[in-house]
Amino acid sequence: MERGCGACVVLIAKYNPTKDEVSEFSASSCLTLVYNINFYSIITTEGLGNTQDGLHAIQKRMSGFHASQCGFCTPGMCMSIFTSLANADKSKEPEPLNGFSKLTVSEAERAFSGNLCRCTGYRPIVDACKSFASDVDLEDLGLNIFWKKGDKHADVSKLPTYTLGGGVCTFPDFLKSEIKSSLDHLNVSNVTVSGEGWYHPKSIDQYYDLLNSGIFGDCCVKVVVGNTGAGVYKDRDLYNKYIDIGGIPELSVILRKDSGIEIGAATPISRTIEILEQESGSISVPNGSLVFRKLAKHMSKVATPFVRNTASLGGNIILAQKYPFASDIATILLGAASTVHLQVASQTLEVTLEEFLEQPPLDPSTLLLSIFIPHWTPDSQTQTNVVFETYRAAPRPLGNAVSYINSAFLGLVSLNEPSGDPVLSNLHLAFGAYGTEHAIRATKVEEHLTGKLLTPSVVLEAVHLLRETIVPMEGTSHPEYRVSVAVGFLFSFLSSISEDIKGPGKTLNISSASSVDTDDLCNPTLSSRREALSGDDYKPVGEPIKKYGVELQASGEAVYVDDIPAPKNCLYGEFIYSTKPLAYVKSIKFKPSLASEKILTVISAKDIPSGGQNIGSSYVFGDELLFGAPIAECAGQALGVVIAETQRYADLARKQVIVEYDTKDLKPPILTVEQAVQNNSYFNVPPEMIPKQVGDFSKGMAEADHKILSTEVKVASQYYFYMETQTALAIPDEDNTMVVYSASQYPELAQSVIAKCLGIPLNNVRVITRRVGGGFGGKATKSFNVATAAALCAYKLRRPVRMYLNRSTDMVMVGGRHPVKAYYSAGFKSDGKITALHLEVLINAGISPDASPVIQKVLYQV
Amino acid sequence: MERGCGACVVLIAKYNPTKDEVSEFSASSCLTLVYNINFYSIITTEGLGNTQDGLHAIQKRMSGFHASQCGFCTPGMCMSIFTSLANADKSKEPEPLNGFSKLTVSEAERAFSGNLCRCTGYRPIVDACKSFASDVDLEDLGLNIFWKKGDKHADVSKLPTYTLGGGVCTFPDFLKSEIKSSLDHLNVSNVTVSGEGWYHPKSIDQYYDLLNSGIFGDCCVKVVVGNTGAGVYKDRDLYNKYIDIGGIPELSVILRKDSGIEIGAATPISRTIEILEQESGSISVPNGSLVFRKLAKHMSKVATPFVRNTASLGGNIILAQKYPFASDIATILLGAASTVHLQVASQTLEVTLEEFLEQPPLDPSTLLLSIFIPHWTPDSQTQTNVVFETYRAAPRPLGNAVSYINSAFLGLVSLNEPSGDPVLSNLHLAFGAYGTEHAIRATKVEEHLTGKLLTPSVVLEAVHLLRETIVPMEGTSHPEYRVSVAVGFLFSFLSSISEDIKGPGKTLNISSASSVDTDDLCNPTLSSRREALSGDDYKPVGEPIKKYGVELQASGEAVYVDDIPAPKNCLYGEFIYSTKPLAYVKSIKFKPSLASEKILTVISAKDIPSGGQNIGSSYVFGDELLFGAPIAECAGQALGVVIAETQRYADLARKQVIVEYDTKDLKPPILTVEQAVQNNSYFNVPPEMIPKQVGDFSKGMAEADHKILSTEVKVASQYYFYMETQTALAIPDEDNTMVVYSASQYPELAQSVIAKCLGIPLNNVRVITRRVGGGFGGKATKSFNVATAAALCAYKLRRPVRMYLNRSTDMVMVGGRHPVKAYYSAGFKSDGKITALHLEVLINAGISPDASPVIQKVLYQV
Questions:
Q1: CA nearest A568 in B: which residue?
Q2: pLDDT band at B86 (very low <50, low <70, confident <90, very high)
Q3: In terms of Cα–Cα distance, which of B717, B847, B731 is closest to B781?
Q4: Any idea what the Cα angle at residue B136 is, between residues B135 and B141, rounded to 5°?
Q5: Three-state SS across B708-776?
Q6: Which of A375, A597, A635, B331 sits at 20 to 30 Å (Cα–Cα) from A775?
Q7: Does residue A452 belong to any structural domain of this protein?
Q8: Domain of B596: which CATH number?
Q9: How many beta-carbon contacts under 8 Å exist across A and B?
Q10: Which long-range contacts (CB under 8 A, 24 or more apart) does B207-212 make?
Q11: Looking at the complex, does the CB of residue A515 fall below 8 Å from at least one CB of chain B?
């Protein structure tokens, strides 16, 4: 979920000098490019309040409702909540009771949708947010420090005061004046050139003039609107030029026509949803709003609110065109029979979305101008109704998850003259995201179904044809599941059609058909909850008290390792890791690229000082190497550290690495628990960790009513998924000493590993951990490698070195909780009581099993 | 001694590409402007060695000879010693024994002349330096860790190895190549313009073209050669333009003529000394070298070696022309009847030095080109001899101290025909530095003495006339002393003349007269020493062991407070202090100036948070205010802190302050111990500090053979003179916490004062003191004000704030050890044993008694 967690959400406020209006929306700061937001105002949680000037009600209530543990996600939560409150309070709804917002409880449940939290389980956060809602019943909220549960003392006056509107100025007056006074200047229709190679063309002509000017000769140029695509397709190299096409008026056009609506490609998805909702609200023809309404509803499940606010409609479709991107939007617009307007040099073209998606990947010489979505209206004269439905199967029903498969089906239904049974025509059956180059129409199925009665054999044939059409690409996960869901979607669509037919006279219910959603997850009923309450008999035990530091976390004051300001001359490192499970590393080179030019040096095993050891981690099962040298022992093992002047340079430079491997004379790697057993490859289990027999197994089995004589359980590995990835900052100090700030669950062990690696006394190493942004076991021994690598680099280079693993490196190198295979026999009484248990557990305790599962040794327990 | 302590001495190496020669000299880095040393190489003590790569022999021997305590001066010591070794080893002297340098013991004693140390007393440093000398007797050196004293085991092989030449490359090859390849470019005779407004004219014409070009319109422009004048006349404001005239060839001319020698004004003083020595060595006429030799010898007492290496001869004379600068050089050149060449626009003039000094203060339109020193040779035909002598009276005989008075006397001596007694003619009697606008000739005395026999009445009249001439300006310290020394100098000169006359035939001893120096302090015999040795009966007590950290201090790795790299967004503060002893502060304003433009804000008492207190220091006698508000209680009390982006900006901005005072309705301040007693103004002495009577005073007095019935002792205040001035770095951290790095002798008390001032709990304040660069009591309670002020500024501004007092502010604000007045009665036995003592001590315990001695309260002890 890199670039999708919401921890960095901020409020962006935009000022319209003509209307003298400020509009506010949330956005991920990690995806927002600073030259894209010139003249905007940014509010972070630090801008809401702080411990010195006073905290904001949101921050205080996050604390009072115990809504934070590690606190890493809390600033983003606060900003999503604040944006929701600020926007709700701007609505024309009636004034709420004093102390409340206009936000509703139902909106409160979705106020921070997309903000991930790994510790609290969301419930307390929802409580904090609901406490602002005008329709909340305060008694229903969970444990908090403001009143005792069940004491009927819940009262808004006990809550930290909230002022309608949020009470924070989101757009400073000086910036308004600056905008007003520079209005003339801004309207001058020249390409604006801002710092760092940014170009802002103001017209299509200017765009092409720019492209043809030759200034982008050998440059890496990036054409951007919202830049949220970088959340999916991460930058592979640095860019030295950017063209911001968001300022070209043709790309922001909204044209309402009789035949449909044309939406400029640069329109944000959230704005598109609003437009579609407004449009469907304005259509008086019964059922005429169906397509727009369903599209809007589906789009509100795409990504997260803070991504939809900046991501453009066109950008999504372009990603779908260029990459095998699992776009919902391309599929549903394809299902809605949309067309696109393109600019190719001086020509304007209109092609169907289908044709567009099938073209070779777009290059900057073609501009996607707009998307046209046709109106589909029932015709009561011809008794023809419109049917339209969209579907998505994804890990989370409310969105913010890539679909396993999505689809959208459009058709006209009329009644077959003699039988009165429904017949379909004008079918658009679109499928996407199932492991395809791009969304497709199931044309054979469309043709097959057109004009036919939906008899069981017709439907069965349709399913056969669909199975031939929906063929996931090689390497797609769960291919069978995806195909079967596709069939299910089609079946569901076809079966719903007959529901629209009024018996016994058999007419089409045109006014209401398909207007009721079969699935209303987007406006869900409030989530249920259950809370276990303890009495206060043993007061103060059990009494709700504020957790130390939540306010600091909520106000953004809490300093995590990467929040420590970079010391003077700080350098940044990123790991090079092995992509082979067991291989000699012959050479490490870099592709020529902008990013490679930023490499200052590469630190590897050769840089370990004499007297030091190649050690990166240590625990009761032994030591782990810091660097795989000369043999990379497993995929994900560090081979070196790329050093550059910024973390971004280091990260992108690492992507240019070319490692040459050689597996000559090496045995095949051990990749599974079974292979480990077969190769007799076990860890030495320290005696104190070998379980001792308790009771008499045979006796227990004899007493059992039911017996499991032998069975096998397998548990897959699981990524720890702390919000803050592994990070460390090493600062060399006088007399060969080293201060290492480490996000570690075991700073005391980190110290000894670092000292061993550098070959210096323990007292020369100081490891400081103030807090971690989530650990869940993943920042125990796994944090040592990062801290030790940073310390080694700092020691060698005599400058501070910071390492902050990107999510992808983190997942590959850190791996997950160990996959387990267990065998057991057990006996039970009829009431379920266990009388006997014999358990054998095999744990894959190797490094990085997720990256490429190599077990080095296996822990064997009886 | 700001800019005169030598702690920042570095080696500057200069490369001559034509001769392929590197020359090395020491210089104060605090006085050296970086644009003045383009293409030079700098070696600091870090460049000699360090704990990670290995230490240099100098650093190891500094440690082994216990040659460091606080360590603040040690890097400068090392660099002065290294420069001396490197230059000695380049000489044509025979190769020394393996492991030794060509330096002699006598040179070793002067190797770091001018480097001040406040802790060790120099002896161990001299030992460390002497250990390199080719003619040293190692047994004579003091206690060290290499061998036991008196064990006759002293052996060079036991010392850390020294390689002849120093073993450090002082000029890197890449820079040599760069210089060679840019030779053509450098020779292009255009004005070079380097960064930050620096202009480097290459000819006199270019200089005037620059001046007349108008580019210096309203600018603050500084004309520089060595910039060492800034050590005496500190910059009062920022400059935005500099003209470096060191590159104008006419200013570096050396012209040897029959009539004398012309020396370019930009010639460094050290080079001038060399030239004069060479010149005097090349003169074959007996006694013809007298003037040059005496001038060279006198100049080697001016300032310090590391200042003489960059300070120009002309710069010194220009200071003497423009300011009442206590120049020795101007006086002795005046005495030597020198003339100067001036460029005034397109005209070249030659005027006597006397005329030059009397002109109105020079402005940049006049250039001092060169100084001409005439030859003075005896004439054996006419039996006329030359007499010349220079004198200085100063706190230190070897130099590096401003003279109370200096003088130089030149004359021709011939024998009066009838009597054969000496008669003087052509007299030049120059006096300076006694509190005069500039050096003068005592013309009345000269006229009076010319042609007269030196009878007692003639000499007495000369003394009378001299007393009328030498009249120190109002405000000069010790005026009577200075005048009496002037008389002494003249008397000494006159009396020496008769010594040159050979009786009984009375002829002038022309060949040797005045060739023997009356005062040879410049080539002193080795300093004597006495060492108390303890046996090693109680080993390991008394065994010499390395002090922890000396190597770190010597290698420059030791981190003092101001060595901590500036944190991100660090701001800098400098105190505004009161110049009145007791007055209301009505307003604080700033003169318009370049420096004033750099002021970001001024922090004062109004910025103390509610809940905090105006407290800057605290001890058993009570609290001291941080800021004098609304009343400045004493001169030197802080009124506020000027905040700027650099320490230099803050320091110079502070100099622009205009404080308006008002003493209406205030009593006169208490300025002396006596006034305090009169006003009954006492501290409350805590009971445990009140001394108790021991024994029986009356009985003791009765038993005494000798009695002092009552007497009074006064001890003046004394500045602590730590090398590192008061400094602190305050860094705000989360949750209203503050980390303060303080150079403090009482960090635990600093913590409580800071917490009280900010109104936060003690545990929110962390005071860190790793080491101090000397304290001597002055960094006890006096360090709290600085730490507290920095903390307050950082708290208010929410950014790190650093304060590093300049020496002048430090001396004014910190004051000194308390002046004491004591009365006592005592009785003694004949053998000196005390039988009775009654002591009453009055201590001026006020703030900053030196600045303007106001006693607030007085400690009274019996």
A1: B565
A2: very high
A3: B847
A4: 175
A5: EEEEEEEECCEECCCCCCCEEEEEEECCCEEEEEECCCCHHHHHHHHHHHHCCCHHHEEEECCCCCCCC
A6: A635
A7: yes
A8: 3.90.1170.50
A9: 35
A10: B207/B243, B207/B245, B207/B248, B207/B367, B208/B345, B208/B346, B210/B243, B211/B243, B211/B364, B211/B365
A11: no
**H or E, element range at A386:** strand A385-393
* Interchain pair A566, B565: CB under 8 A: no
Contact list in A for residue B569 (CB cut-off 8 A) is 565
**Minimal Cβ distance to B734: which of A558, A569, A736:** A558
The b/e string for B379-389 (b: 16+ C-beta within 10 A; e otherwise) is: eeeeebbbbbb
The answer to whether residues B376 and B234 belong to one domain is no
Is the residue at A184 inside a domain?
Answer: no
Question: Which one of B552, B558, B736 has the shortest CB-CB distance to A51?
Answer: B736
Q: Which residues of A touch B798 (CB under 8 A)?
A: 52
Does residue B308 lie in a domain region?
yes
For strands A617-619 and A622-624, give the pairing: antiparallel
Mean pLDDT of A654-676: 89
Residue B189 identity:
S
Nearest neighbour of B734 by CB, restricted to A552, A568, A735: A552
* Mean predicted confidence (pLDDT) in A774-783: 93
Both structure tokens of A158: 């006990």
B756 and B635 both lie in a single domain: yes
B617, B650: one domain:
yes
Q: Of B295, B524, B486, nearest to B388 (Cα)?
A: B295
The answer to whether residues A261 and A288 belong to one domain is: yes
Q: How many residues does chain A have?
A: 862
Distance from CA of B7 to the nearest CA of A (A): 19
Residues B318 and B380 in one domain: yes
The two three-digit tokens of residue B848, written as one number: 């900053």
In terms of residue numbers, what domain contains B502? 249-508
- What is the complex's ipTM, to 2 decimals? 0.88
Round the CA-based radius of gyration of chain B to a whole number and report it: 30
Q: Looking at the structure, do residues B692 and B794 belong to the same domain, yes or no?
A: no
Q: What is the C-alpha separation between A335 and A408, in angstroms, rounded?
A: 5
pLDDT of residue A862: 29
- Alpha-carbon distance of B491 to B466, in angstroms, equals 11
3-state SS class at A384: strand
User: Could you tell me the two tokens for A694?
Assistant: 């308790």
**What would the pLDDT profile of B400-440 be if each residue is shown by its tens digit?**
889 999 999 999 998 887 777 889 999 999 999 999 999 99
Looking at B472, B487, B508, which one is the last position of a domain?
B508
Q: Which H helix or E strand runs over A387?
A: strand A385-393
Single out the residue in A158, A181, A216 at which a domain terminates. Answer: A158
User: What's the pTM?
Assistant: 0.90
Q: Is A53 on the interface with B (CB under 8 A)?
A: no
Same domain, B197 and B207: yes
Interface test with A, best of B45, B548, B550, B735 (most A CBs within 10 A): B735
Q: What is the dihedral of CA B549, B555, B561, B565, to 10 degrees?
A: -130
Partner residue opposite B51 with nearest CB, options A549, A567, A736: A736
Among candidates B37, B79, B121, which has minimal Cα distance to B556?
A: B79
CATH number reported for the structural domain that contains residue B399 in this entry = 3.30.465.10
Q: How far, in Å, CA of A59 to CA of A164, rounded?
A: 16
**Is A311 a member of any domain?**
yes
Do A265 and A370 form a contact (C-beta atoms < 8 A)? yes
> Which stretches of B110-259 are assigned E, i.e. beta strand?
192-194, 198-200, 221-224, 241-244, 254-256
Domain of residue A121, CATH code: 1.10.150.120
Provide the domain count of chain A: 4
With CA atoms as reference, the chain A residue closest to B567 would be: A567
Q: Are residues A391 and A438 in the same domain?
A: yes
